Amino acid sequence: MKSATIPYTRVEVEPGLRQIILFEIFFPMVLLIIGILAGFLQVLYRSGIIRAQSILGIEYYQGLTLHGAINAVVFTTFFAVAFGHAIMRFELGKPLLIGAAWLSLILMAGGTLMAAVPMLIGKASVLYTFYPPLRAHPAFYIGLVLLVVGSWVAFFSWIPVFQRWKRDNPDTKMPLGVMGIFATFIVWFIATIPVAIEIIFLLIPWSLGWTQTVNVPLARMLFWFFGHPLVYFWLLPAYVMYYTMLPKLAGGKLYSDFAGRFTFLWLIVFSAPIGLHHQYMEPAISSTWKFIHAFFTMLVAVPSLVTAFTLAASMEYGARERGGTGLFGWWKKLPYLDRDRWLFGYLFAGLFIFIFGGITGIVNASYNLDSVVHNTAWIPAHFHQTVAGPVFLAFIGGSLLLLTTLTGKEIAFKSVNVWIPYLWTLGIMIFSSGLFYGGVAGQPRRTNMGLTYTNPASPLYRADWRISEIAGAIGGTVMFIAMLLYFIVFFATLAKAKSADGALELPVSELIQDEDVAAVQSLRPWLIGAIILLVVAYTAPFVELARGRYEGTPGYSPASPVAQQR
Ligand code: HAS
Fold it and tell me: Which of 364, 387, 426, 428 to mutate to test the pocket of ligand 1 (most atoms within 8 A of CB)?
């Protein structure tokens, strides 16, 4: 079977779908302004520049919750759905089910607003992991459920469209981008079932007062059953852009179609049975199962190593086509600051950051090393080099791409736009270096250090941690400036007059090698493999918890060490 040759790079889009995708880009972008501001305040608190419990009417943990929930949950979910609609419409060349797309949008936007209200009035300061015994207002949990259900509706609405495409093209491989989007949402579907169980059966009844206590170890295990595949739900749309667009932007071709399919499918199997690597320090789980999850975690890194090689080879091909020579000299020929191929910079800069995010992920996965860095500043350093690195840059670049192509508007301030990803990268690297250093020195995450460790007036003051927090504040400020520039470019582009009719016009990479490997043509065997591994990886840990008979815990607020009174 051969790959679908996409004879077009421009696909006309029905007005309804265009409005839906544009709204799904615009709405989270407005919220992202709050999320980014809340992130900037975090570095000011931690470095001791702010020495208070709250600022601008936003309490420390309230701001941290807004930062994580908006940036890592709301923005990413909306982008994944919008991008999924775009890829399905573009690569299958068939109209989508508009009614379902509207329903999905209404559920997601309604759910987000419902969860936003308690966060904004300080009734849901439970951080993006919403671990009990921190307790939020029921509207927060119900809003999250609606957001997730809305994204499921979009996913299921693509299946009949794909089936019609398959009937019309029985001898053609599933397009690579379509396979990547299906992998994204299969991972998401698997991930969201345990968290739905946690929210519906444990947290909502507890938050409504129907139950007085909650089983904390059970809730945490259900959360991480969701929490790790969640990170690959973030990564996969970025990988779709890397495999289908980056080689073209670099002036070349994708080195291997097989590598892309293998990467997407492998992540379906291995992204979920590894959640216990977030719980190495959890006393309720035996070390045997932690070790098995550690082993699977090493296997989840394999497709990213394959990706590193494949993308480097694809970019090298492009650079040599553009006249690059020598063992390393070809790097000079990549379009780093090309105003017309500006998306290259967003994707390339993310890859650079991911080298460090990936290495530190493997450190975290190494059980014994994790005992040094768990719950320290090292962890936010790692995740800013993953979700805030390749994922965030691909998503903000992708948002700009969809905005310009669907509205037919030229990008505003092109010469500023090309520098934004590099400025963000500079900020991330300084910020994360500071936090890695602090983490190894024992500095905690999720702590308002301006009141204690970075305040010379406090008996807890740690002069040896100072350097780490200065680096964090400098890096965070550079990141904040990069995002201010990005918002200016985004909203100025939106305000411009259109110069062409809107359509989907996306870069499409051709292939150097179009391997015909049956094992990576179908999702089904990989899905079965994923279910088997999940049963293997989680049955015994859940049985252990059930045997443990843990006492329930009452609710707490982050502001008080005393259980909340109803
Ligand atoms: Fe992670 C914690 C292990 C990847 C996100 N991770 C987190 C948390 C988040 C997160 C949000 O085992 C914190 C959760 C919380 O709040 O507590 N992570 C890993 C491993 C990987 C990994 C093994 N993480 C990610 C990705 C994320 C993400 C991706 C978001 C998108 N992580 C952990 C562990 C913990 C953890 C433990 C728990 C720690 C604890 O104690 O709590 C792997 O998937 C990484 C594989 C990646 C690579 C890199 C490949 C490099 C590429 C770039 C090539 C560059 C090129 C350009 C070609 C092996 C593809 C070259 C250019 C030049 C100029 C040279």
Answer: 364
pTM of the predicted protein model? 0.96
What pairing do the DSSP bridges indicate for beta strands 504-505 and 511-513?
A: unpaired
Q: Which of 1-5, 190-194, 424-428 has the lowest average pLDDT?
A: 1-5
Closest ligand 1 atom number to CA of residue 315? 58
Tokens representing residue 49 in the block: 């520049």
Q: Give the Cα separation of 498 and 50 in Å (integer).
A: 43
CA of residue 370 to ligand 1 center, whole Å: 13
Q: Write the CB contacts of 279 (distance below 8 Å, at least 6 apart in sequence).
A: 220, 221, 224, 285, 290
Cα–chain-centroid distance for residue 207?
27
Cα 87 to the chain's mean position, in Å? 18
Please tell me the predicted confidence (pLDDT) of residue 2: 67
**545 Cβ partners below 8 Å, 6+ apart?**
215, 217, 218, 221, 284, 285
The total number of residues written for the chain in this structure: 566
pLDDT digits (tens, 9 = 90+) for 376-400: 999 999 999 999 999 999 999 999 9
Q: What are the C-alpha distances in Å from 490 to residues 393, 399, 505?
A: 14, 9, 18
Residue minimizing CA distance to atom 21 of ligand 1: 361
Q: Strand pairing partners for 556?
A: 134
Distance 359 CA to ligand 1 centre (A): 7
